[in-house]
Design goal:
Strands 10, 11, 13, 14 and 15 form a five-stranded antiparallel beta sheet that branches. A five-stranded antiparallel beta sheet has the order 17-19-24-21-22, with no helix packed on it. Strands 4-3-6-7 form a four-stranded antiparallel beta sheet, with no helix packed on it. The chain folds into three domains: 83 residues, Immunoglobulins (Immunoglobulin-like, Sandwich); 109 residues, Immunoglobulin-like; 143 residues, Galactose-binding domain-like (Jelly Rolls, Sandwich), CATH 2.60.120. The chain is elongated and about 110 Å long. With 382 residues, the protein is mostly beta strands. The termini are far apart. The protein has two helices and 26 strands.
Length: 382
């Protein structure tokens, strides 16, 4: 009995020690570092940016990432929550496996994601935007078309050089963050320091910044697309009475007989007219912006040809005080019929913001009338 009791005591002690060791081993093996959450990826040029939410447990101390066909390993000594993985020049998908590590470098349960970086081959296959020169309203624009599509989004920067006949060369640069994502960008030619490009052939060398789009994800990196394009610029003809401005006249004929006031002079409607109870008058068009008017038209009123203008000048001014004569007509015959338009060219190359039609004689009536007076800018006449 004594021997049996001793054996039972030994076995009891051994069992307790073994269970404690097993328990410690269990804790060592299975109390993992916490798993990251919400793993996200953002493509960049030959790189990707990974981001995630770290666990809130006390065991997680650092981060380990394994990626690529060769199982490249990168580690971070702290619990970073975003990293940039560089040097991804292959145009294929990469699988990224992210772990946390505890103080003894035991790894957590993995979280993985597949990412497609923007490769050089992808960028080279993108179609650069094209350029046209067009007139919108009273402004000529360099329009960059195709800056955004399903494969890229305009990033906001344009640089260009324009060269043309006669040694013409101008460069421009625009930063347009408010236009990001727009498929067409209109740059005013006035940004080059000139009002309009004269007609002729021009070569544009330009580059545009875009964000490539991969798998519906917009790249975090902008890239530049370059192009060279030859553009034929057509003459620009602008009705200056359609630009912002005000009309006035010498006889203060407002509101005018039967509504036939000076506003009717610039409405480009031959069925209306300006009528004043004087046989002479001057009419002034003042614009917010200066233009070099190269042509004007006069349209006769609807009745009494004795009211038609006979002697007049068209004058330009910078201040409305000092005037330069741009065209003079003397003993001009009556208009051949009513509501008839006649055009007059002016050898003017100077931009003015004030223009005046000064009628000093008509064809004998005590009244003066005119249906329309329209000034034009024509770049083909410059």
């Amino acid at each position: 009995m004594i021997i049996v009791s001793i054996l039972l005591a030994l076995l009891s002690n051994y069992g307790c020690d073994s269970m404690e060791d097993n328990f410690k081993q269990y804790l060592e093996e299975y109390n993992y570092s916490g798993k990251i959450d919400s793993l996200r990826v953002y493509p960049g040029f030959e790189r990707v940016v990974l981001a995630w939410d770290n666990p809130k447990d006390q065991k997680s101390k650092s981060i380990k990432i394994i990626y690529g066909a060769d199982s490249t390993v990168v580690t971070y000594d702290t619990l970073v929550d975003s990293v940039s993985i560089e040097g991804l020049d292959a145009g294929t998908g990469y699988e990224f496996i992210v772990f946390t590590l505890d103080a003894k470098k035991n790894i957590s349960v993995p979280t993985s994601i597949t990412a497609f970086p923007v490769s050089k081959a992808f960028v080279d296959a993108l179609t650069p935007p094209s350029i046209v020169v067009q007139t919108i309203g009273a402004e000529q624009y360099i329009s960059v078309i195709g800056t955004t599509n399903v494969l890229m989004r305009f990033a906001g920067d344009i640089e260009y050089t324009v060269s043309g006949a006669g040694g013409f060369t101008q460069s421009g640069k625009a930063q347009l963050p408010d236009m990001e994502g727009k498929p067409q960008i209109n740059l005013p030619v006035s940004a080059l320091g000139i009002s309009f490009l004269p007609p002729g052939e021009y070569t544009f060398n330009y580059k545009v910044s875009v964000f490539p789009i991969v798998g519906n994800l917009v790249s975090v990196d902008e890239v530049w697309l370059t192009n060279t394009q030859t553009v034929m610029v057509q003459p620009v003809v602008i009705n200056l009475m359609n630009t912002p401005g005000t009309i006035s006249e010498s006889n203060n004929n407002s509101p005018g007989h039967g509504g036939e006031n000076v506003d009717k002079l610039i409405d480009n409607d031959p069925g209306t007219k300006y009528l004043t109870f004087q046989n002479t008058a001057w009419m002034m068009w003042k614009m917010e912006r200066a233009f070099a008017a190269t042509k004007y038209t006069l349209t006769s009123g609807n009745d009494d040809d004795g009211r038609d203008p006979k002697d007049w000048t068209v004058e330009g001014s910078d201040d409305g005080v000092t005037w330069t004569v741009l065209d003079r007509q003397t003993n001009f015959p009556k208009f051949p019929q009513r509501k008839y338009k006649i055009s007059f060219l002016m050898p003017n190359r100077t931009a003015y913001n004030h223009y005046r039609l000064n009628v000093t004689a008509n064809h004998g009536s005590g009244l003066f009338q005119l249906a329309d007076w329209i000034l034009y800018y024509d770049s083909g006449q410059q």
